[in-house]
Structure formats: structure tokens, C-alpha cells
Amino acid sequence: MTRPLAALALALALAPAALASSGCKPKAVRGGPGTENPNLDQGAMSTTLDRRDLQELMRMNMDKLMASPWWAQMTQTPGQVVAIWPFKNETSEHIDDQLNTLLADMETELVNGGTVAVVSRERQAEMANEVAVQQNRNIYDPNFANQISRQLGAKYYITGKVGSVDEFFNNERRVQYTLFIQVIEVETSLVRFQNKAERSKAIVR
């Protein structure tokens, strides 16, 4: 082997070690409040819905809910029973676990607020699953939601859905997400509140 070729071979052999020692090796980091990377969760990693998107969409809806005439009525007659029904995922993404976490956060906020009494989502899920199996019912059927909520003693139930519209143009992608919520009166099936919060995510070049 000639001297130039021997030098090239040595350089290629040493390259991985040089990269590792220069700090290019990936490493795990911790982010969020109270860590060295407090803004780690702020940036978007993709066009899919992440925890921050869902939290902010829910926050927009909850702010509207608590500024609504229906909520003002609840504050005048506190202690009325409310159930939180599962939200339907109408996107192509697997976000059911994130939605369940989000609904648990909603339950916590309503319980700690003290204005309404909230049916345990665990108890509601047990009854709904039992009846759904017995009657072969769709859990998202409004009549089914009314039936279970009535059996649990709820006067109102909160329901909703997540939707998306996906667009492509000139190798760019934009996804428009919506989180829609409603408050339904059990006895009358009347809509007492509804709101839609929106969020867009895109890949641009």
C-alpha cells in the first residue's frame, strides 16, 4: 500500500472515534419546567398532534366554556352532576391515549373548581363498556351517551371529537386540526354549549 493510501485508510479508521469525542454522539436529555431544557417541548417535531397541541386546544375550549351562559348558570346552582363522555378521534392518528389523558385533565379541573359535581370517568367507563357489550351499542351514539349519563345521575354530559384536514401543495404539507366540544342536557338532548378550537401544523420548505 502506498503512503497516501495508508494515510487515507488510517483517517477513515479514526473518524468514528473523532466524531464521538467531538460531542456528535446522540444523548438523552430531560426537558420541561425545572430542568436545563425548559423549552424542549415548545418546538414542533412533525405535523402530527402532540401533547402541547392537545393541551392548548383543550385550554381554548375550556376558557370559552367557563365564559359561557351555561357555566354562569352552573355557578348560580352549584353541585349539578356532569359526566365527561369519551371524545371521538376522527383523525388518522393514534391519539386515543393522549385524548384519555386530556379528558382526565378536564375532569381534574372541573372537580377542583368545585362548581359542578363530576361523575368518575372510571365508573362511567365500566358501566358503558358493560352495557355496550350486552346491547351491542356504539359508545359514540348520542342516545347511548344519554342512557348511561341518566343512569349515573348526570344532568349534563360533555362530549366532543378531534378532526383534521390534510393538504399538500408543491411538496409542502399542512394539517388543520379541530377540537370540538359540546355540553348536552341529558333529559332534553338540547345543546347547552359548543365550541371549536383550531390548530394548524405544516412542513414548509
* Rg (CA only): 25 Å
Number of strands: 5
What is the residue-averaged pLDDT?
82
What percentage of residues falls in helices of 4 or more residues? 40-55%
Tally of contiguous helical segments = 6
How much β-strand is present in the residues? 25-35%
Could you spell the SSE succession in H and E letters? HHHEHEHHEEE
- Secondary structural class: alpha/beta
Give the spatial strand order of the biggest sheet.
Answer: 2-1-3-4-5
Unreliable segments of 5+ consecutive residues: none
Main sheet?
5 strands, mixed
What is the end-to-end distance?
Answer: 46 Å
- The backbone outline, from C-alpha atoms, is globular
List the helices and strands and how they pair.
Blueprint: H1 3-21, H2 51-66, H3 69-76, E1 81-89, H4 96-113, E2 117-118, H5 121-135, H6 142-151, E3 156-169, E4 172-185, E5 191-203
What does this structure look like?
By secondary structure, the chain is of the alpha/beta class. 42% of the residues lie in helices and 25% in strands. The chain contains 6 helices and 5 strands; from the N terminus they run αααβαβααβββ. It has a 5-stranded mixed sheet with strand order 2-1-3-4-5, with helices on both faces. β3 and β4 form a beta hairpin. The protein is globular and about 55 Å long. The mean pLDDT is 82.
Which short descriptors sum up this protein?
globular, alpha/beta, 25% strand, single chain
Tell me briefly what this model is.
This protein has helices at 3-21, 51-66, 69-76, 96-113, 121-135, 142-151; strands at residues 81-89, 117-118, 156-169, 172-185, 191-203. By secondary structure, the protein is α/β, with parallel strands linked by helices. A hairpin with a 5-residue loop joins strand 4 and strand 5 (191-203).
